[in-house]
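@channel anyone free to eyeball this complex?
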Amino acid sequence: MTDPLLEVEDLTVKYRTEGGMLTAVSDASFTIDPGEYFGLVGESGCGKSTLTKSLLKGLDSNGQITSGTVRYKGEELQDLSETEINDRIRWKEISWIPQSSMNSLDPLQRVSEQALELAAVHTDLTREAALEKFRDLFEIVGLPKERVSDYPHQFSGGMQQRAVIALALFLDPSLIIADEPTTALDVIMQDQVFKYLDRIKEETDTSVLLITHDISVVFESCDRIAIMHGGQVAETGPVTDVFDDPRHPYSILLQEAFPDVRYPDRDLGVIEGRPPESMGEVTQCTFADRCPWAVEECYEHVPPQEQVGPADRDHTAACFRSDEVLELYRAETDHSGGANAGTTAE
Amino acid sequence: MSDDPPLLETRDLCRYFEQDTSPLDVLLRRESEPVEAVDGVSLTLHENESLGVIGESGCGKSTLLMTLMGLHDPTDGTIFYKGRDVADFDKADWKAFRRDVQIIFQDPFNSLDPKLTVRESLLEPLKIHGIGDRERRVREALANAELNPPEAYLDRRPGQLSGGELQRVSIARALVLDPDVILADEPVSMLDVSTQASVLNLLSELIDDLGVSMFYISHDLSTVSYVCDRINVMYLGRVVESAPTAPLLEDPKHPYTQALVDAIPIPDPHHGRERTTVDGTPGNPVGLGEGCRFRDRCPDRMEICERTPIDHGMDGDREVACHLYYDHEELTDAEATVIRS
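replying in thread with the prediction:
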């Protein structure tokens, strides 16, 4: 086995608020291997953005990592200073594709100037060589080479997003963090962007951490998935395992709530309630209040993330009843065929 | 079909917007061409039907909705409500129209007055239209929107409610006047998926149980398909295909509909969907003139596509505006050769 690229271990992130310390992420763990596309999924407020911001010290000033480690290529990042992160990690090792590319390009600078600035700070490439490299990247993301020196407003939303992807690839990072990269785009444009992300996967060893609320794009584009709820990682594993054999109630119910255009007549699952805001220490499963199968234990202890399924699959779930929830779910619904979790299409 | 006129009907509806002209344009006597946001749209909404309009941002679906509501005047074409041309409406007719046709907006966080309690928000339309028995109607509307028990919500303000609850209050506000038609503008796009499902289920139930008709616009085909009996696909101001939901999804005819359906992600890692082959973006509906508006991106482009296709009726109550599907008797074979790109 290769060494993992990124290891997040028991990470807890808290925000100082007027009402006290708010726990946004509690004891989250997952790993990303080199070349792997990893999807981090959850509803708004589940802590997925906070978690990823904390990886690169991008938290708001009232947020801090209170415990746990972030190891990148074996090195602990959480204690590095801002300058060290800037010099060695940001862009060169880990780059970032923000949610709204429309606001992340400087509107007054040609896109090529923004790439050249990166080159000047982080590399000793000549201007010519840097431009040539950027042109090649434009081609990879499906933009015409000659348009590298256009201004951002001359591109459509989808093209801007692809220009940002080209920038993110510019210094050959080992990991790209993409925060809802296609949420602002229409479906055809979204598919165009993923087409090029697929291509990057084939042609480079870059890993991608894809943060999204849309489980279907993760199932289509990622190797592995982590599902978060209320600051806790509910389940992680290969996408096929989490789809075929989900072990956390939230994973099961979230998949059932997702519309599938293949089955427009299917009843959509509903998850009652909403995730709690955890002030202070988290001492229970944050899904317990919404969970149809919660037992006393779920309110008294935090369920640990434990290995489920075959040992070599690295499939974990944080649920005291992970061995039986799928059975319980199936017993309650008479989904014998169709779109329920665990059935393979076609 | 009954003999009653359809509830809501548009015939060749157009809504153009003038573009800003700079002083230089005026000096040079340059005439700017209008934005053809809605260009010749004909739709029919029958009683108890739910009609969807889908399209990408900028396709004109929101303008269409605003024009239907009377917030924009049509540039051309007509809107019929229960068989009457709305252009002939007087003030009293409009008031009745605004009672019978209700709207649910996209953003539940900004479409309710933050200073009004739920009760006050729901009472207001009843007062305006002089309807009595208000307290009972308010409770009934809340119950119909599945805000149970209604008492628990009456005195709360929008800030104390979640997104899903807010959207249910919007739905209750639309229901309180017992409308014939509900116009829904992307009602679930701001909601999380666990909440989205329950609001979609609620909307489908309303259509079946309360007998309201719904006109539902969205960019998201996978949610529209849960609510609507029939779907119209819009591209750059025009309807390119109209068909009952299931056949449209299973066997889309227009190349644009095909591209849309094929680009929807499937929540199944075993499915192995191919990525889209369509390139580019829709552009702007300005000065497009004659011809099919999808032709520049269309994989099946032919020479004939320089001419505007007719709305061609097909089996199974479908219509498609594409040259692929009808005979062009006046054409020679050579002209009809497909130029594959």
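from a first look: The longest strand of chain B covers residues 35-45.
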